[in-house]
Write a structure and sequence with these properties.
Length: 136
Amino acid sequence: MAVCAAIVGKDNSPKFFCCVNPDEELNFQYKVLSSLDIIEEKLSPGIKPNTEMYLGILYSLENWKIYGYVTNTKIKFIIVVDSSNLTLRDNEIRSMFRKIHAEYADMVSNPFYIPGEPITSKTFTCSIKNIITGTV
């Protein structure tokens, strides 16, 4: 389904990054971090207020499509999808974002998690990989 997922804090600092293929992680980090400008543009006050958390497709490249989702606390979730995957629909991407959001909420509810710190939990990483590959 998806090839990469990222969680970025409200101050645009990376909190979590997960790729199906670890060899391409640096390339995807660049794509994810460059999409933050588009998210900020969509959230800017001059544009109509967006009550929808799902931002939809942020931009499309030759091989990848990048989708965004923002929580009420300005935590950003970003998913990178292979452009050749024509079977993936918009409602399936929304569902992936909802599942990732639920996993994130469970993670930050953990009393041992320090707010603002990067997420390093192996269980969380495994859960996110299962969500983006569609094995949940």
